Amino acid sequence: MFAIAMTEPGTGSDLANIATTAKLSADGTHYVLDGAKTFITGGALADRVLVVCRTSAFDATNRRAGLSILVVDTTSEGFAVGRKLDKIGLKASDTAELSFSSVRVPVEDRLGEEGAGFSYLTHNLAQERLTIAIGASATAAAAVQHALAYTKERDVFGKPVASFQNTKFVLAECSADVEAIRQFVDRALELHNAGELTVPDAARVKLFATETAGRVIDKCLQLHGGYGYVLEYPIARLYADTRVSRIYGGTSEVMKTIIAKDLGL
Ligand SMILES: Cc1cc2nc3c(=O)[nH]c(=O)nc-3n(C[C@H](O)[C@H](O)[C@H](O)COP(=O)(O)OP(=O)(O)OC[C@H]3O[C@@H](n4cnc5c(N)ncnc54)[C@H](O)[C@@H]3O)c2cc1C
């Protein structure tokens, strides 16, 4: 199992600020890796961790230079798993702190060219963002299905919740939102399959899908009344699990900065 370790206690959105260092040995055979990572999905169970680290000193005139990606064997001396973070959702996936104390990494285990890490990340994060948008599409659609089923069964004031005009209007809005997400995600998938999904377009689809899914799931939870707040109901788990989609893979605010730059702003 693999994990990818970009985020550090001191930096998340600003990846160029990564402080974990990898120094090449005098004989050029290996790197010596030192630093700490946090929020790493699958980090506690991974066999290999792709670690984004600094292989040359920070250069304020070119902040993106000097980052590389090393593939670290988690049985290496000096590698340690710290706390598993206690999240509000996504309970089935571990999210861990990792530390690296003078971990020896053979030069052959560097992924790609030295110093090109930032551009590899920029390129590949587009696919990760599309994947997150696909998840948002599925969870929003599921939320509407759960709300439809629940409101038909639950009687209040002697009639099903589904019979109130408010319920019909809310679910109609949610249904339109779900369809809009699906169309946008399908279009992005087509572009991805054609090798044409740009970084700004991936940011657009992630922003729209995750923000819209968040609103849809919140409205569907509301239709469940108090039961929507109880984890034994699927809508509560969807609410908790989906919240992070607006944060990981790059926050909504970071998506907006990418899109704004694409607009020439
Ligand atoms: C469950 C989970 C799993 C994760 N898995 C991984 C993983 O596998 N690997 C990994 O490397 N990371 C992972 N992360 C980390 C995740 O990618 C970061 O949390 C995320 O990128 C935000 O970084 P941060 O938490 O340091 O927030 P910060 O960067 O400190 O941001 C704080 C706030 O400032 C805002 N902000 C930042 N920059 C700007 C700006 N320019 N303009 C306006 N607002 C701004 C942000 O949007 C946010 O609202 C995971 C996180 C979670 C919660």
From TrEMBL:
Any single Gene Ontology cellular-component annotation: cytoplasm
SUPFAM superfamilies xref list: Acyl-CoA dehydrogenase C-terminal domain-like, Acyl-CoA dehydrogenase NM domain-like
Catalytic activity: a 2,3-saturated acyl-CoA + A = a 2,3-dehydroacyl-CoA + AH2
Matching InterPro entries: Acyl-CoA_dehydrogenase (IPR050741), Acyl-CoA_DH_CS (IPR006089), Acyl-CoA_Oxase/DH_mid-dom (IPR006091), Acyl-CoA_Oxase/DH_mid-dom_sf (IPR046373), AcylCo_DH-like_C (IPR036250), AcylCo_DH/oxidase_C (IPR009075), AcylCoA_DH/oxidase_NM_dom_sf (IPR009100)
Alphabetically ordered keywords of this record: FAD, Flavoprotein, Oxidoreductase
Pathway(s) of this molecule: Siderophore biosynthesis; mycobactin biosynthesis
GO molecular function, one term: flavin adenine dinucleotide binding
GO BP: any one term: fatty acid beta-oxidation using acyl-CoA dehydrogenase
Domain annotation Acyl-CoA oxidase/dehydrogenase middle: ranges: 3-103
Pfam families, alphabetized: Acyl-CoA_dh_1, Acyl-CoA_dh_M
Coiled coil: none
Start and end residues of each Acyl-CoA dehydrogenase/oxidase C-terminal domain: 115-263
Cofactor needs: FAD
Highest rank taxon of the organism: Bacteria
PANTHER family according to UniProt: LONG-CHAIN SPECIFIC ACYL-COA DEHYDROGENASE, MITOCHONDRIAL (PTHR48083:SF20), MEDIUM-CHAIN SPECIFIC ACYL-COA DEHYDROGENASE, MITOCHONDRIAL-RELATED (PTHR48083)
Function: Catalyzes the dehydrogenation at the alpha-beta position of ACP-bound acyl chains. This results in the introduction of a double bond in the lipidic chain, which is further transferred to the epsilon-amino group of lysine residue in the mycobactin core by MbtK.
Family to which this protein belongs: Belongs to the acyl-CoA dehydrogenase family.
Full protein name: Acyl-[acyl-carrier-protein] dehydrogenase MbtN
Organism: Gordonia rhizosphera NBRC 16068
